[in-house]
Write a structure and sequence with these properties.
CATH class of the domain at 168-263: Alpha Beta
Shape: globular
Distance between the termini: 48 Å
């Protein structure tokens, strides 16, 4: 690891100032520190966001939950209000990685990193969430722009994410055994306006599936999901499985998510 300086801002304004000046924000460090240790990344200055209390808050505001960017996976997973009113999000967080990752990893860090196999982006996109920064709000449909790429500008911080509360929702994934990242993960959310289906792990980034959304908006059943043909053309292929395998997983996991949501 190369030498660097560590700043510890105590306010969002201080963190934003440091980030705008070139400091790399440090959230849970589950990706950043590993990259630096392997010398895949070199940052001369880090800004540790762990001391900014307001960034860890989880609160309900009307028909949505606002989750601070520094909320740890473990905190989201065991939050009583989320478990009661948005259990799909709590369940997703409770099953990320292992205990160490859940204790250190954060919502904002995961979403800002936008790993193509991360769990949280599917919840953000599937629920049609809104990403908050110090200067603006970004709709989920506009936020994810490809592998490790988002709508965040250079030096821009995520402060919180607001998640609308659906009628019902569920997340299902098939884990890759060694990394514990989902080989495929599917988040399904039903609203009065229709159904959103977001898929992670299967392609170069998280994406919505129009065919599944249309079918499930007409009839929210596992049978409706099973009847949708999943195109494998743009899906990943690696030693863990080819595109056809991932296409089948999308179908199967969507059916399981719908069944879980209905239960």
């Amino acid at each position: 690891m190369y030498a660097f300086t560590l700043e510890r801002p105590t306010t969002v304004a201080d963190a934003a100032r440091l980030s705008a000046a070139g400091a790399k924000p440090l959230a849970g460090g589950q990706t950043l520190l590993a990259s630096m240790k392997l010398r895949l990344a070199c940052h001369e200055q880090l800004a540790d966001l762990g001391g900014i209390k307001e960034l860890s808050e989880i609160r309900r505001e009307g028909a949505a939950f606002v989750v601070g960017a520094m909320a740890r996976h473990a905190d989201v997973g065991r939050n009583a209000d989320l478990k009661a009113s948005l259990p799909a999000l709590a369940d997703l967080a409770e099953r990320i990685g292992d205990r160490q990752v859940r204790t250190m990893g954060t919502l904002g860090g995961s979403v800002a990193n936008n790993d193509p196999s991360a769990c949280y982006p599917s919840a953000v996109l599937g629920l049609g969430a809104t990403i908050h920064t110090p200067s603006r709000k970004i709709a989920a449909d506009d936020f994810f722009q490809g592998m490790f790429t988002t709508a965040l500008e250079e030096g821009e911080l995520i402060t919180a994410i607001s998640f609308p509360i659906p009628k019902r929702a569920a997340y299902e994934k098939f884990k890759q055994g060694a990394s514990r990242f989902p080989l495929v993960g599917v988040f399904v959310a039903q609203f009065d306006s229709g159904v959103r289906v977001a898929i992670t792990g299967a392609a170069s980034g998280v994406f919505r599936h129009a065919g599944l959304e249309a079918a499930l908006s007409k009839s929210f059943t596992a049978e409706s999901a099973a009847a949708v043909a999943i195109d494998s053309a743009d899906l990943n292929s690696d030693l863990h499985g080819g595109p056809e395998y991932r296409a089948n997983l999308i179908s199967v996991l969507t059916q399981r998510a719908v069944t879980k949501a209905l239960a």
